[in-house]
Design brief:
TIM Barrel, twelve-stranded mixed sheet, 13 helices, 14 strands, binds iron/sulfur cluster
Length: 403
């Protein structure tokens, strides 16, 4: 069953009006770390570079723009990301050729999957050109990359087919509810749900799949949308994932009481839906997956999947295989990092691409990041004050390094 398109046709003109209105934001690099000089580089039997906690480098997230046309309170709150902020200058952004060059080095160290992020990645002009360049790359074992993209869906209806034609395989769409009033208050730019659903339907029609829909659950804001979202996407072939509200960046004023733990979301879903846990398809998967049972009590894959991303209550750092490259060429090793490594000088006008690969290998080999685990430990330890240094540590904004 395809996603219902009857509810997705309204307000097209609004979509265009909003999508053209790009609000500038400032990048927030919090300093750079020196690239290690004498790495002790290890790799696993499949050739993935290993970090100090033996986690392989597999997944690269590339932010292609620092701009977004939404102002979600948990990511780019309007009070902070207002017209006072300035764009990164065009000259600071990595070009598509530079991004592709960087990707080649990451692939040489074991990366198999690339996710394009932002900001809102579809705001980057001619993104299809970059996708085509990345789609032409091959892993060390000769396989095509898994190329995906995370989007707010606002431009998906008009871009889905060209993205698919360029070589994009699938998309993840952020959607925090089906109720227009709730959704508009969360995106804070009056963007209607119907246009995002239209984008999802277009992505399905173009064959971009499997599609995932991510819903950040913020207690007191959108928990009443959990059941309607689960009902809506059941049987559509789209995996719905519930994400615990996280303390990303330093601007969203995160409070623990606003987190609705995944266990509680699951309990709520089970008041209506018969669900069964599924085994992980891959080590390092961010979501715990559940399937639907049919009337006979058997798992029915045609009814789709529900996932839980529980970064706050059930940290998954021990399997974290993700590196993040910002739109201006900074490498971050964790979503909650304070500082990155400046790769731009090694990407731009560098006649020795092997030096870039060596630098990435050296950086990854030193990686010990596990913020969510540490946050969990601190929160469970009553002797740690709630304003402890690690929890209050200034983090780079998610809109800068990509989610
Ligand atoms: S907190 Fe950092 S290390 Fe842990 S899973 Fe998230 S990105 Fe990975």
């Amino acid at each position: 069953m395809k996603v219902r398109s009857s509810v997705v046709c309204a307000s097209k003109s609004t979509a265009h009006a909003v999508s053209e209105r790009v609000i500038p934001i400032i990048s927030q690099p919090l300093g750079q770390l020196p690239i290690p000089q004498f790495p002790n580089i290890g790799s696993d039997t499949s050739g993935h570079a290993l970090d100090r906690l033996n986690r392989p480098l597999r997944d690269l997230r590339i932010s292609v723009t620092d701009r977004c046309n939404f102002r979600c309170s948990y990511c780019m709150p309007k009070e902070i990301f207002n017209n006072e902020y300035t764009y990164l200058p065009q000259s600071a952004l990595l070009s598509f050729e530079e991004i592709t060059r960087a990707a080649q080095s990451f692939i040489a160290l074991g990366v198999e999957k690339i996710r394009l992020t932002g900001g809102e990645p579809l705001l980057r002009k001619n993104l299809e050109v970059l996708i085509a360049q990345l789609a032409a790359l091959r892993t060390a074992s000769g396989h095509a990359l898994d190329i995906t993209l995370t989007t707010n869906g606002s431009l998906l209806a008009r871009k889905a087919q060209s993205l698919k034609d360029a070589g994009l395989q699938r998309v993840t769409v952020s959607l925090d509810g089906l109720d227009d009033a709730v959704f508009k208050s969360m995106n804070d730019v009056d963007f209607p749900v119907s246009d995002v659903l239209e984008g999802i339907a277009a992505a399905q029609a173009a064959g971009l799949g499997p599609i995932k829909v991510n819903m950040v659950v913020k207690r007191g804001t959108n928990e009443q949308e959990i059941l309607p979202m689960a009902r809506y996407f059941k049987g559509t072939g789209i995996a719905l994932r519930f994400i615990e509200y996280m303390d990303v960046g330093a601007t969203n004023g995160w409070r623990m009481h606003e987190v609705m733990p995944s266990a509680e979301v699951l309990q709520l879903l089970q008041t209506e839906l018969a669900l069964t846990p599924l085994t992980a398809t891959q080590k390092g998967e961010t979501a715990e997956r559940w399937g639907h049972l049919n009337a006979q009590g058997e798992h029915d894959p045609s009814l789709g999947e529900i996932g839980f991303i529980s970064s706050v209550t059930k940290a998954f750092c021990s399997d974290c295989n993700r590196a993040r490259l910002t739109t201006e060429g900074q490498l971050y090793l964790c979503l909650f990092a304070s500082q990155g490594y400046d790769l731009k000088p090694l990407v731009r006008d560098n006649p020795h691409p092997e030096s870039l690969t060596q630098a990435i290998a050296a950086i990854w080999s030193q990686r010990t990041d596990r913020y969510s685990e540490l946050r969990r430990q601190e929160m469970n330890d009553p002797s740690v004050p709630s304003d402890s240094a690690a929890l209050k540590r200034r983090k780079v904004e998610m809109s800068y390094i990509g989610g």
